[in-house]
Amino acid sequence: MSTSSSVDHAVIGGVVAVIVFILLCLLIVFGRYLIRHKGTYLTHEAKGSDDAPDADTAIINAEGGNSGVEDKKEYFI
């Protein structure tokens, strides 16, 4: 009966080892994915604002934005 018991322990140990190995691999792959895609999100900032000397110049010289939209006019009474 001892051979049957030792075979069962070996099978259970092998299955647990495979599951731990798969979880470890998935953790590594997921970690690399998070590191590679860190900070890659879309913003609506002015294009080319990185090379402008200050924020005002970047806004004035912005290429993108609201093209074709009329500026709102303010009337003072």
Describe this entry's structure for a reader.
The protein is 53% helix and 0% strand. The relative contact order is 0.07. The chain is mainly α and 77 residues long. It has one domain. The radius of gyration is 30 Å and the shape is rod-shaped. It is found in: Membrane. One of its GO terms (cellular component) is cortical cytoskeleton. It is a single-pass membrane protein.
Short description:
The protein is mainly alpha-helical. It contains two helices and no strands.
Map the helices and strands:
Elements: H1 2-36, H2 55-60
What is the radius of gyration? 30 Å
Q: Structural class, please?
A: mainly alpha
Strand content: under 5%
Low-confidence stretches: none
Shape: rod-shaped
**Gap from first CA to last CA:** 102 Å
Give the helix tally. Answer: 2
Number of DSSP strand runs: 0
Helices and strands, in order, run as HH
- Mean pLDDT score: 77
**Main sheet record:** none
**Assembly type of the shown chains?**
single chain
What share of residues is helical?
A: 40-55%
Count of individual domains: 1
